[in-house]
Design a protein that fits this description.
Layout: E1 2-8, H1 13-22, E2 28-33, E3 38-45, H2 48-61, E4 71-73, H3 77-85, E5 89-91, E6 94-98, E7 112-116, H4 128-141, E8 150-154, H5 160-167, E9 172-177, H6 180-193, E10 200-203, E11 214-220, H7 223-228, H8 230-235, E12 237-249, H9 253-266, E13 271-278, E14 281-288
Parallel strand pairs: 6-7, 8-9, 8-11, 9-10, 11-12
Antiparallel strand pairs: 1-3, 1-4, 2-3, 5-6, 12-14, 13-14
The structure holds S-adenosylmethionine.
S-adenosylmethionine (SAM) is lined by residues 21, 24, 122-123, 130, 133, 154-157, 160-161, 176-179, 182, 205-206, 220-221, 225, 247.
């Protein structure tokens, strides 16, 4: 494995966040030290050829001038550093645990543990966009007497949100992703959490989801994809359904909100919409009345 690490100008933070999120799962990660304001772009690659290709790609998108000579062999401590990056975290009664941190007595803590092996898929729960979905799902559905027949996870990545949906009580859970690697990783994560489960993962694009079929749809995909498919997403919800849209940067949220409001009006639907925010990221919660 090889590593490339480069400081980048903080003025590119939002643009880079958008680019990397869109390319998910991406070999690059952004690390912003909020105290020193130093922004680092780090990439982990299988070999030199892959590293050079990815450096070229990112240099073409933004004038970062990442130096090909910065490719270095990973030392043994990297694996440890990588694992340190994914620490267990808790939201209310739920604990999200990297598989390598699994402990025999986890279940005695009174928390529901969800084990995730991120592999190459997006969704350890450490990213703000995933956390926003998790917090909204728990706040809206956990221990509430809402209908929980059908749940759809659009762009399931590691499968983390589908797994949580089953735990908060949904009877039928479908996770779709247009990337086959995400489906393989989701199925692997399912096996880490349940001996048997009715969750279905399918390689499928957002534009094939069925109309009027779900009590809840969660889609953590970038804003332009959400807006392109706003009509289909709205039509796929049952009456009184809930939708959580995430993967939206601060400056995009008004446009996404307007686009979905337009679709609601076109489809003669009335809804309450709320925004939740974490750092530069926003999520929308749309509840049909
Ligand atoms: C940011 S990840 C979200 C992963 C996970 N749901 C989470 O919240 O952590 C977005 C996922 O959407 C998938 N995706 C992107 N465009 C899609 C489309 N048009 N149809 C289905 N999946 C799509 C990507 O492959 C990626 O796995």
């Amino acid at each position: 494995m090889l590593k490339v690490s480069s400081t980048v100008n903080q003025k590119y933070l939002l643009e880079l966040e958008g680019i990397l999120f869109e390319a998910a799962p991406s070999p690059w990660s952004l690390i912003l030290n909020r105290k020193t304001k130093i922004l680092m772009l780090e990439g982990i690659f299988e070999n030199k050829e892959q590293a050079e290709k990815e450096i070229q790609k990112i240099n073409e998108l933004l004038p970062l001038n990442i130096d090909q000579n910065k490719i270095g062999n990973l030392d043994e401590s990297w694996e440890k550093a990588y694992k340190n990056h994914f620490q267990p975290w808790i939201y209310k009664d739920f604990k999200f645990v990297p598989e390598w941190e699994r402990k025999p007595l986890d279940q005695n803590t009174g928390l529901s543990c969800i084990y995730i092996d991120p592999g190459m898929a997006f969704g350890t729960g450490t990213h703000e966009t995933t956390r926003l979905c998790i917090e909204l799902m728990v706040d809206i559905f956990y221990q509430k007497s809402l209908s929980k027949d059908h749940f759809l996870d659009v762009g399931c990545g590691s499968g983390i949100l589908s797994i949580l949906a089953q735990i908060v009580g949904f009877q039928n859970v479908l996770g779709i992703d247009n990337d086959g690697k995400a489906i393989i990783n989701s199925e692997h994560n399912l096996s880490l959490n349940f001996e048997s489960s009715k969750i279905n993962f399918m390689k499928k694009c957002i534009n094939t989801i069925e109309e009027n079929s779900f009590n809840c749809i969660v889609a953590n995909i970038q804003a332009d994809v959400l807006m392109t498919h706003s009509d289909r997403l709205i039509r796929s919800l049952y009456k009184n359904g809930n939708m959580i849209l995430s993967g939206i940067l601060d400056y995009e949220v008004d446009e996404v909100s307007r686009t979905f409001q337009k679709q609601l009006t076109t489809n003669n639907l009335d809804a309450t919409t709320q925004t939740r925010k974490k750092n530069e990221w926003c999520a929308l919660h749309i509840e049909l009345n």
